Amino acid sequence: MRVSRAQAEENRQNVIDVASRLFRQHGFDGIGLKDLMEAAGMTQGAFYKQFASKEDLIAEASARAMESASARWSSAVAADVNDPLGAVIAFYLSNGHRKEKMKGCPLVALGADAARQSAGVKASFEAGIREHLRVLTRLLAEADTDEKWDKAMAILSTMVGAVTLSRVVNDPRLAQSFLDVAAQSVREVSSS
Q: Strand, helix or coil at 81?
């Protein structure tokens, strides 16, 4: 049975959404096309009608994951106009975010995997990283543009590193300490 172009595009977007979440949970190599397509409610054969390769899907799913992450940052900023950076710190460096792999930060979940991928996949991550940095520079106190950019890079690096390390360790107190110390460090950097 043939599907309309609109339905085919809807199916394609669904596969990208599902891949975006499953890649964050399992890694790029941690889930095969059969299981991914099954999770999207489709057959593996349908994959090749929609994507040139798994690498093509990885690049598109990575872009979608980074867009989702940027939207979460924007929501946090909008939720607390009096302390938008504090709102980002509070959600990002939280125990809930540490535990949330499927919808959590793709930089944490897939950063090491992305470093070993094609230029197209890296471009998806780079675009998302640049957007995160732009958000952070808007949230920083008055300073010159270069200084804000440098501070934003330090803040993003600290936060991504802290969540990554907090996910790696078994000890919940140590995990929480990484998050707490990073939050304190980010506040110090942002106010200096």
A: coil
Distance CA 102, CA 24 (A): 5
To which H or E segment does residue 162 belong?
helix 145-168
pTM of the model: 0.88
With tokens 């054969």, the residue in question is: 45
* CA pair distance 37, 17, nearest whole angstrom: 11
Classify residue 104 as exposed, middle or buried by CB count within 10 Å of its CB (0-12, 13-18, 19+): buried
Half-sphere exposure (Cβ direction) of 121: Cα atoms closer than 13 Å: 22
| 119 pLDDT more than 70 | yes
User: What domains appear along the chain, each with residue ranges and CATH number?
Assistant: 55-191 (1.10.357.10)
Residues sharing a CB contact under 8 Å with residue 59, sequence separation 6 or more, in sequence order? 118, 120, 121, 123, 124
pLDDT tens-digit series, residues 120-143: 999 999 999 999 999 999 988 766
